[in-house]
Structures are given as C-alpha cells and as structure tokens.
Hints:
With 138 residues, the protein is an alpha+beta fold. The chain contains two helices and seven strands; from the N terminus they run E-E-E-E-E-H-E-E-H.
Amino acid sequence: MLYEKKLITQDGKIPVDYKFHVFNQNGNEPVIIIQIDYDRFESHSRVYYDKEFNKLPFTIQYQKGSKEFKKPLNYKAMLEVAYTLSKPFSYCRVDLYNVSGKIYFGEITFASDGGYGKFSNKEYNKLMGDYWVMDPRY
C-alpha cells in the first residue's frame, strides 16, 4: 500500500485545519494567506492570517472565529510543503494538519468553498482576487 488512511485526532477531536492559499506571481515570491478552520463538527469557525501570522479582519463562508492562534510547531516546514506543492499553479489552496509538530497532507484545491464562499468584507475579496496573477507559464 502506498499510503495509509487513518483518522487523525488531537486530544480526541479533529485537529485544526491549516489551509494555505498560495498565489504564485510571475516568478516573484508567492503571496500566502492562511485560513484556519476549527471546531468543524461543533461550531465551525474560521480565521485568516498573513504569512507572518498577523490576524486578518475578515472571514469567508463560516463565522469569524474569536480564537487566537500562534504559529504551529514546524510552521516553516508547513510553508515549504505549501510552496513546493503549489509551484506548478498560479493559485491553489494546500490543506495541512499539524498534530504535535507532525505535518499531515489534507488536499489541494483550485476552488476554495467551491468558488461560492462569501467574504465578510468585500475589500478582501478584491485583494485576494488581485493576488491571483495569471502567469503564462501556467
């Protein structure tokens, strides 16, 4: 078997889901927005951070969470995974879990929220849209 399927838990719960929105921009350093989903099966909430882990004042689709998150263990390694997996694309979202510093891959998607997620702040809708630069190499 090439891979192992198993339920990943942390303290008996589904772990926090780190979703790296990676915008590759014509050979420049990618722009990364980090979406953190938590309490998925209780009161699904979401918060957004920039790459330096500064909290951003918006949410998409789900309620804006009130929890504050710090960089997880092996955050730099998570960034490297997101960079590496996103390289062939002008935009993608790379989903990762981090349980006690061990990184697990979730998925790659090209249409977050199926393309129908509503922003709580239209300014950030435009900002994230402006990050998506179509590169002829893709």
